[in-house]
Design goal:
The protein is an alpha+beta fold. Helix content is about 40%, strand content about 20%. The site of 3,4-dihydroxyphenylalanine has 11 residues, from strand 9 and strand 10.
Length: about 350
């Protein structure tokens, strides 16, 4: 038995000598001190010995086992230390190395316009509201004083879903919603930017485009309020020197109605190709809310008055950034979009 124990020690010494990775240590463990390992095997061979021998050899084998465990533990510890050292070595950071450039996106010019429009009107106390793109004929037309069979429906070339539903052709639909939803009939000051749809597709028209609608309903609102508001708006969006002019026009939901022109920001009003030599560019439609529209929205036109306006967001973006084709705004070509990155959005160093 003694010999057996000794030869096991010699064997272990040889086997463990060059062991220095995780797998080999595990194998060593299983082979010698595992449940079915050589120590267990030796122990079980004691069962036929007499009591005295069993005790002596049992103790001896246990001692040997402890030796093995100690050796293996040590190997595990030094392996862990070596791994840690290697990691620390590999992960040292050279703070003098140049940073890695990461590409950052920037706001789409369309969203940038929306943000600027919202900032302006919020600063004037307006709420920003939202409405569905799938609208009812009632909100998009009837409640805006455009009854069934009215020619304005044709001009707008509507995408009808069925008799009742359509893709809204104008954010004006949200005027009707806002008035109905305001149950207390308190004053309204809102803008609604959003998408609208029409059957159009060329360099200056897209079947889907953006509009922003504005509605103010209160007591004693006059055309002067409308003019003042839109003048400030035009200056904010297109520059301090922008002049504004009102031309009589017609919209079914406003009376009187006006079309608002701004002085051409390209030539300053002298005349150029952009303004077709007129010095003016048409910016938006507006007017005093028609008494019928107020009544249908539950506001007594003898008590309340209001103004409304609507303009194309794409138009604003095209003017402001001199974009020649509306479709650039919708094709998401990065080479195009990159040009609108602001200084604070340029590629940054990580
Ligand atoms: N909804 C009109 C359009 O799509 C624009 C418009 C004109 C809106 C006059 C208004 C308004 O609120 O008062 O062409």
């Amino acid at each position: 038995m003694k010999d057996k124990i000794q030869s096991l020690q010699t064997q272990f010494a040889a086997d463990s000598k060059n062991v220095d990775d995780r797998m080999a240590i595990q194998e060593l463990k299983t082979k010698y001190i595992g449940k079915k390992g050589l120590i267990t095997e030796l122990m079980s061979s004691l069962k036929d010995m007499d009591k005295e021998d069993k005790k002596t050899y049992g103790q001896l084998i246990n001692q040997v086992r402890t030796e093995f465990v100690t050796v293996i533990d040590e190997k595990e510890k030094s392996l862990a230390q070596a791994e840690l050292d290697r990691k620390l070595q590999e992960e040292t950071i050279d703070v003098s190395l140049p940073g890695e450039k990461i590409k950052r996106g920037s706001l789409h010019p369309f969203n940038r316009i929306i943000e600027d429009v919202e900032d302006f009107f919020v600063s004037m106390g307006y709420d920003v509201v939202d409405g569905p793109e799938l609208e009812t004929d009632e909100n998009c037309f009837q409640r805006l004083n455009v009854p069934l069979g009215h020619p304005a429906r044709d001009a707008q070339d509507t995408f009808y879903i069925d008799e009742e539903y359509l893709l809204r052709t104008q954010t004006s639909a949200v005027q009707a919603r806002t008035m109905q939803e305001n149950k207390e009939k308190t004053p309204i000051r809102m803008i609604c930017p959003g998408k609208v749809y029409r059957r159009d597709d060329d360099a200056t028209h897209s079947h889907q485009f953006g509009q922003v609608e504005g509605l103010v309903v209160d007591k004693d609102i006059s055309l002067a309020d409308l003019k003042g508001t839109l003048e400030l708006f035009a200056k904010k969006m297109l520059g301090e020197n922008t002049k504004v002019r009102f031309r009589p026009s017609f919209f079914p939901f406003t009376e009187p109605s006006v079309e608002v022109d701004v002085s051409c920001f390209k030539c300053g009003g002298k005349g150029c190709t952009l303004c077709k030599q007129t010095g003016w560019i048409e910016l938006l439609g507006a007017g005093m809310v028609h008494p019928n529209v107020l009544s249908m929205g539950g506001y007594d036109p003898k008590v309340w008055s209001g103004f409304a306006f609507g303009t194309g967001l794409d138009r604003l973006a095209m003017f402001r950034y001199a974009i020649p084709d509306i479709r650039y705004l919708y094709t998401n070509d990065v080479r195009f979009l990159e040009q609108f990155a602001r200084k604070d959005e340029e590629n940054v160093i990580k």
